[in-house]
Amino acid sequence: MDTLKGRDLLSLADLTVDELLYLLDLAAKLKSGMVKLQRNKVLGLLFSKASTRTRVSFSVAMYQLGGQVIDLNPNVTQVSRGEPLVDTARVLDRYLDILAIRTFEHKDLETFAEYAKIPVINALTDLEHPCQVLADLMTVQECFGSLSGLTLAYFGDGNNMANSLLLGCAMVGMNVRIATPTDYQPNGEIVEQAKAIADGKTEVIITTDATSAMQDVQVVYTDVWASMGQEEEARMRIPIFQPYQVNEKLMELAAKDAIVLHCLPAHRDEEITDAVIEGPQSRVWDEAENRMHVQKALLATLLGSD
Ligand code: CP
Predict the structure, then answer these.
(1) Distance, CA of 209 to CA of 139 (rounded, Å)
(2) Torsion 140-146-148-149 (CA) sign
(3) What's the confidence (pLDDT) of residue 235?
(4) Residue 259 phi, psi (nearest 5)
(5) DSSP class of residue 123?
(6) What is the mean pLDDT of each run of 10 residues along the chain (306 residues)?
(7) Which of 227-264 are b and which e, b meaning 16 or more Cβ less than 10 Å from the residue's Cβ?
(8) Which atom of ligand 1 is nearest to the CA of 50?
(9) DSSP-derived secondary structure for 170-191
(10) 129 an active-site residue?
């Protein structure tokens, strides 16, 4: 799709609905057979936080497309010694073909995208995790055959996952319910953005009531109660988040054919019980695999086929 070539992906809202659906379709095609498109292209991974899935799935996706990867751990670059982002961005732009960034502040990602002309991909910020949601939607589509009209409920912290799920579900015509404690709701601007996209045609519900959120949903989603950088708060959060634990009792309220997703890593018997994540409704391993397929589609499309 030529409209995507050379673009950045900082937020799911950077895509049109047609572009998002095109990526899911291309990912499914790539999953069914090897395609080599990006010989000699180089992807940089500038990750300021730990990562297993994102780092490995982007790397393998790029290798399978015929390209190369440079792991730019900030500790081995001048970033850790305070080189301004605007300088790093302009220099990396001269070497690389595409750059995936994992960082804390979303505005740092936006600064990179402003100063680097190459496509910049959000590999997770504190505000959004769009690549994860592309893989989640691909997994839901594989399980149910379509997306429109399904209902996803997310339980736990109103974090970057909740924000990106709000946008992704609204864009593809899914109902979305976010159940969080009062003081841990998703980003207000993104909630309004999702409501504007849904335009009254699908549900966008923010609630503190986990029981009502779970009623008859087809897709159950959760994430850790304390994200990277919030480790000191983790113990204090446990009693606050306990009513939002995805366990066998809460799962009884979901649709009979409901699936369970988790972006991983998971803290068993905190946000999700061992019985549920290892149970018959769990699709978390397919979901993790799909990171690779959907990011391959994203890389191929943002780079173009020349
Ligand atoms: N889901 C996810 O982004 O996993 P990693 O933190 O391991 O990359």
Answers:
(1) 26
(2) negative
(3) 85
(4) -110, 160
(5) S
(6) 89 95 93 74 96 98 95 88 95 97 97 97 98 98 98 98 98 98 98 98 98 98 87 86 98 98 97 98 98 96 80
(7) beeeeeeeeebeebbeebbbeeebbebbeeebbbbbbb
(8) 6
(9) HHTT-EEEEE--GGGPPPHHHH
(10) yes
Ligand 1 near 122 CB (within 6 A): no
**132 C-alpha vs ligand 1 centroid, how far in Å?**
8
* pLDDT tens-digit readout, 73-124: 888 889 888 999 999 999 999 999 999 999 999 999 999 999 999 999 999 9
Query: Is 223 one of the catalytic residues?
Result: yes
259-262 β-sheet, strand order: 204-207, 175-179, 151-155, 219-222, 259-262
* Annotated catalytic residue 263: yes
- Alpha carbon of 2 to ligand 1 centroid (Å): 29
pTM exceeds 0.70 for this model: yes
Q: State residue 305's pLDDT score.
A: 64
Q: DSSP strand E in 40-90: where?
A: 42-47, 68-71
Residue written as tokens 């499914």?
A: 28
Collapsing DSSP to helix, strand or coil, 292 comes out as helix
- Distance (Å, rounded) from C-alpha 164 to C-alpha 183? 19
Whether ligand 1 lies within 6 angstroms of the CB of 54 is answered as yes
